[in-house]
Structure formats: structure tokens, C-alpha cells
């Protein structure tokens, strides 16, 4: 099944080994900013129909790699597949984002949840992983992913996106034991899900803690970090060069880089609100760092994009004792549908050009 990997920059950077150029991939690199994605979506009918069909998921995973010299592919799927498999009934309303038909609102709702059967409920995801590995044929590594327990709990309890997280924060404040039972069953599911993706061929795994940053530091440590620690400790990842690296990404996690680096993860992904030199000093060489260009930089012109790419590359080097080792270039969060694909090419090429040895 596995051809030798022709571009291992991304995996080498996660091991903090020297690379010829800093590797780059972009969160949400597949999606609505690409006309070829919109064409496939028109055929398929909806995002969920795309994500649940392994051939289509494979096709849209590969689309950005045909345009740009990206150093990794990321599985086309969504973090909300786990709650969907738990029976919450995921659907999307145009312009409003994800929603659940049956949100988790009471202690009784929490106690009815169970870890989904991976093969029966999420086989479409692992089928997509195997197919993408076969189609990539060793061109670049494939990243599998999951939402973090806290971030999944936010969607499950709110029933969709939220501005103030009133329901999930109330549950955490009023029923902390039930909140911890909820986070435990999600964590067990995340570990099983990431393990299944790894078994199907994922060569790195990323956890998206999109909403950890909405918590106070005390609540972050209790309701988000604790479960990220459990994932990093319990997820089977193998040894040596065969080890499947883990990246913990979080929006608003700049204050917790030391604590995240101490979990045993291989990589920490940060957003754009912390200077990467400061993040690198806090990481003290214990982990690789991923990030952290402001996604809105893509609205700038090519000169501005090159300038900002150079600034991020140099900030990492300055905070990392003068070396570029251990940096995976990325945005600080995902791309938006109104971004210009030509600007993405400028960004990707600038990373390789400006970081060349
Ligand atoms: O990075 C990639 O290219 C891989 C694919 C990917 C998607 N979602 C595809 C997608 C990944 C890694 C995700 C993760 C995800 N999904 C997160 C965590 C990362 C982050 O952005 O913070 C979250 C919070 C979600 C939940 C979710 N799914 C939202 C908020 C939306 C957008 C809804 C909207 O209408 O804007 C989705 C849908 C979604 N997931 C799309 C894509 C390409 C848009 C689908 C479409 O309308 O075509």
C-alpha cells in the first residue's frame, strides 16, 4: 500500500530535524475559495454529501495540491463527524454553519452518549484516508484530524456555533461532574477516531481546539487542557521514525505554549495573536511549532504577503536560537471562501524561497 515518501519535510520538521525549506500547508486548504471545489460541490449537492463519499473526499483533498507546492495533504472531512456518529444529527444551514438536531442539554442527554463504533459509523472517514494515501502515492504525507474534546462539547451543547457559549459554560459551571463525563466520552471517541485514521494510513494527526481560547485560564486548564493531555498521553503513536506525530492546534492558546509542550505532543499550532519568536522561546525546543500567519494576510497584495511571510519565518528563527528547525509554516487559523487562489500561490512559494538554505 505505501510507496516511499518523496517529500518528508513536514515530518522532519515535526521531529525538529534539518530541512532544505520550511514545510508549509494551510488549514482549510481545500474549500470554497477554489472554483474546482465549488464545481464538485454543485455536483454532489452539499458539503456533507462530499465528506461522506470517499471518492469525492479524496478528489477535493488533492485539489489544492495540484495548484500549490504544499508539503502536506489534510483529509477532507469535518470535526463534527464524531457527534454526528453519536446520533446528534448534524446538518448545515447555508450562511449559518453547522447545527445539531438533538443537542446535549441535560445531564440525562450526557449519560445517553456512548463512543461510536468506528467501523460502522465512521468507516467513510477511514475509507477516505486509505484512498487518499493510495492516490497520493507518496507525494506528500497525509494529515488526519479531530476536534478537541472541549471544542466538540461546545458544538454538541450549543447545538451549533455560538457567540457567548452560554449553554456549554453553564453546564461546566453548574454540573461540572456531568461536564467531565461528557468530556471523557468525547475524549475516548477522539482517541479511537485518531487511532482508526492512523491505522488507515494517516501519517500525522492534528487536534483542533478552536474554542479553548474562550475559557478563563482556570477553566481552560480544567475543561480543555486536561483532555488534550489525556489524548497526548494515551494515543498510541509508535516509535522512532515510524512515530505518528501529533499536533495540538488552538485558537488563543499562546498563553499555554509551555503547558501544551509538556503534554508529550510533537507539535503545537498557534494562532496569529502571539509573536512566533515568543512562542518559540516558550516552547524551548521541546516541540515543533506550527503557524502563525494571520489568515487575513491573504487579502493583502503579493508584496505584502511576501513581507509578512518573511516576518513569520524570521520571528521563528529568532526565538529558536537562530535556527529554522522545528517550524511548520501555516496560517494561524483556517482560510475563508473569499480568498484569492493566486495569493495562496504567492504565499506557498514565498515560504519555500525565503526559508531556503
Ligand atoms: O483543512 C482542510 O482543508 C480540511 C478540512 C476541514 C474542514 N473542516 C472542511 C470544511 C477541517 C480540518 C475542518 C475542521 C473544522 N470544522 C473546525 C476546526 C477548525 C477551525 O476552522 O477552527 C470547525 C470549528 C469546524 C466546524 C465547521 N464545519 C464550520 C464552522 C464550518 C463552516 C460552515 C460555513 O457555512 O461556513 C464547517 C463546514 C466545512 N468544513 C466546510 C469545509 C470546507 C465548508 C463546507 C462548504 O460549505 O462547502
Automatic annotation (TrEMBL):
<comment type="similarity">
    <text>Belongs to the uroporphyrinogen decarboxylase family.</text>
</comment>
<feature type="binding site">
    <location>
        <position position="155"/>
    </location>
    <ligand>
        <name>substrate</name>
    </ligand>
</feature>
<dbReference type="GO" id="GO:0004853">
    <property type="term" value="F:uroporphyrinogen decarboxylase activity"/>
</dbReference>
<dbReference type="Pfam" id="PF01208">
    <property type="entry name" value="URO-D"/>
</dbReference>
<feature type="domain" description="Uroporphyrinogen decarboxylase (URO-D)">
    <location>
        <begin position="23"/>
        <end position="32"/>
    </location>
</feature>
<keyword id="KW-0627">Porphyrin biosynthesis</keyword>
<comment type="function">
    <text>Catalyzes the decarboxylation of four acetate groups of uroporphyrinogen-III to yield coproporphyrinogen-III.</text>
</comment>
<dbReference type="InterPro" id="IPR038071">
    <property type="entry name" value="UROD/MetE-like_sf"/>
</dbReference>
<feature type="site" description="Transition state stabilizer">
    <location>
        <position position="78"/>
    </location>
</feature>
<dbReference type="InterPro" id="IPR000257">
    <property type="entry name" value="Uroporphyrinogen_deCOase"/>
</dbReference>
<feature type="binding site">
    <location>
        <begin position="28"/>
        <end position="32"/>
    </location>
    <ligand>
        <name>substrate</name>
    </ligand>
</feature>
<feature type="binding site">
    <location>
        <position position="78"/>
    </location>
    <ligand>
        <name>substrate</name>
    </ligand>
</feature>
<feature type="domain" description="Uroporphyrinogen decarboxylase (URO-D)">
    <location>
        <begin position="143"/>
        <end position="159"/>
    </location>
</feature>
<comment type="pathway">
    <text>Porphyrin-containing compound metabolism; protoporphyrin-IX biosynthesis; coproporphyrinogen-III from 5-aminolevulinate: step 4/4.</text>
</comment>
<dbReference type="GO" id="GO:0005829">
    <property type="term" value="C:cytosol"/>
</dbReference>
<comment type="subunit">
    <text>Homodimer.</text>
</comment>
<dbReference type="GO" id="GO:0019353">
    <property type="term" value="P:protoporphyrinogen IX biosynthetic process from glutamate"/>
</dbReference>
<keyword id="KW-0210">Decarboxylase</keyword>
<feature type="binding site">
    <location>
        <position position="333"/>
    </location>
    <ligand>
        <name>substrate</name>
    </ligand>
</feature>
<keyword id="KW-0963">Cytoplasm</keyword>
<dbReference type="InterPro" id="IPR006361">
    <property type="entry name" value="Uroporphyrinogen_deCO2ase_HemE"/>
</dbReference>
<feature type="binding site">
    <location>
        <position position="210"/>
    </location>
    <ligand>
        <name>substrate</name>
    </ligand>
</feature>
<protein>
    <recommendedName>
        <fullName>Uroporphyrinogen decarboxylase</fullName>
        <ecNumber>4.1.1.37</ecNumber>
    </recommendedName>
</protein>
<keyword id="KW-0456">Lyase</keyword>
